[in-house]
Amino acid sequence: MRKLAFVGGIIVLPHEEVTGHAVIVEGEKIVAILPENDLPENIERISLGGDYLLPGFVDIHVHGGGGADFMDATPDAMRTVAATHCAHGTTSLCPTTMTCPNEQLFACFDAYRETVRKGTGSADFLGLHLEGPYFASANRGAQPTKGDRVPTVAEVGEILARAGGIIARWDAAPELDGMQRFAAQVREQGILLSVGHSVATAEETLAAYADGFTHVTHMYCATTTEHKRGQVVHGGIVEAAYLEDGITIELIADGKHIPKETMRLGFRLKGKNSLALITDAMRAAGTDLQSTMLGDRQNGVPVIIEEGVAKLPDRSSYAGSIATMDHALRVVHGRYGIPLCDTVRAMSLTPARLVGADDRKGSIAPGKDADLVILTPDLTVRRVFVRGREFQQ
To answer: Would you state the pLDDT for residue 32?
Structure first.
């Protein structure tokens, strides 16, 4: 079995940056972190040349890239998205769907299973992320206007049965009718429940947390803050997330959706262990497209690409990002000033933990998959390894 030693660089661990050490990989796994002076002479060495060695990024909210979208519901499209993001350091991801008819959702299930069976050839899939269809119409953002509905026991049961255990997370508006039953059905299968595209008050959000909604989807985007209902002022989803330590959040890290001050506030109040950075990237990520579709090509939402972000044509809403995770790293650490270890943890170990994959993904540690990214001092991706094998685009 091939044994490698990554040497001569800065190793970024969850709590510190380490030099003078080597990361030892055997086959698909990291087996040790040793002082470079302790390495055997005959081991194959990969010189980092002073560059950073990071754990592969884990993106748990991503719709597309490379001109493809997971809603295209074909293995070719799924492999295209995976390869596009892997080239930028994402070694694991959760393919994200949108509000759609169940037949289309089930086609995504089939394409996902086929892709996993044959292998992506790049980033690993950690389970599907269902964004919809149980959303509040008043806070839908760029989600399709048709297809919203309230959950029924029968429909949710059918979706879960057809999925057969491939769903990692499911976003919904918890103020809708039937949400307690929905939460019970979904949590029974160990799926992460997330508040998203919702008009819930703080009170409703905290009640939903008690029912099992422990995460907030792209906070500040299609979520509520302090607002009036009638003549009564209520807190919103944002306030509830900050008040309840058990609620985790994600922030879109493209440098467009979340300004510097808001990002820094999120890290200060929730911390790197309860905050995940995501791209929410759509099919234009990694391309020079100026207009395209969010979602599948036949039934998706038309969008334009302008000033480095996807927008609805009437400019009433952003429509996902065109970012990759290396860009997110340069934004959050390079421009916003969040410490490197904290930023990397929010891009790797924390999201891996949220979808139950931190036993094998998300950090450079013995026993974990050898998902590694080599970046230059200006945070440009130089090489990517997925389970010990170098990704070749």
So the answer is: 97
Which superfamily does CATH assign the domain made up of 3-53+378-390 to?
Urease, subunit C, domain 1 (2.30.40.10)
- Considering the domain delimited by 56-362, tell me its CATH architecture: Alpha-Beta Barrel (3.20)
Domain boundaries in the chain? 3-53+378-390, 56-362
Angstrom distance (rounded) from CA 66 to CA 159: 28
Mind listing the pLDDT tens digit for each residue in 258-278? 999 999 999 999 998 999 999
> 199-242, pLDDT tens digit by residue?
999 999 999 999 999 999 999 999 999 887 888 889 999 999 99
Residue 286: beta bridge partners? none
Q: Round the average pLDDT of the chain to a whole number and report it.
A: 95
pLDDT tens-place string over residues 100-136: 999 999 999 999 999 999 999 999 999 999 999 999 8
CB 94 within 8 A of CB 129: yes
- With a CB cutoff of 8 Å and minimum separation 6, the contacts of 18 are 10, 11, 33
| Residues 6 or more apart whose Cβ sits within 8 Å of residue 360 | 367, 368, 369
Q: Fold match between 3-53+378-390 and 56-362? A: no
CA distance 178 to 186: 12
| CA-based nearest residue to 337, from 278, 275, 255 | 255
Q: Select from 382, 357, 356, 353 the least CA-distant residue to 369.
A: 357
Q: How far is CA 103 from CA 56, 64, 146, 189, in A?
A: 34, 20, 14, 22
Q: Cα separation of 185 and 117, whole Å?
A: 27
